[in-house]
Amino acid sequence: MLEKLAMNSLKKIKSFLKKNNIDVCLISKNNKFLNEFVENKENLLLKISKFSGSLGFAIIKENIQYLYVDGRYTQQAKIQSKKFIIKDLPFLKKDLSKIIKSKKKV
Fold first, then answer.
1. How many structural domains comprise the chain?
2. Could you tell me if 26 and 53 are in contact, meaning their C-beta atoms sit under 8 angstroms apart?
3. What is the pTM of this model?
């Protein structure tokens, strides 16, 4: 969906989240076919975070953004992705659980 909307910047994504009353956006390095190896033009994570490592996920909320990487990429992520809070990949599942549980039920 982000690809179609040309969501290639944090500002655009956050604006989209706010406008559409969406709490969070999860972005992976993989393309729409979940291929592990993708060209840079298909790598949304690279476009959004400037992170060029082979494994990572971003969680973007209206007021904060996180980049989850495995231990091999922690220093690289800190250098490349200055607008993101860098977290170790094992915390992704726990953090997503909190986000889902905190979501208002209608």
1. 1
2. no
3. 0.82
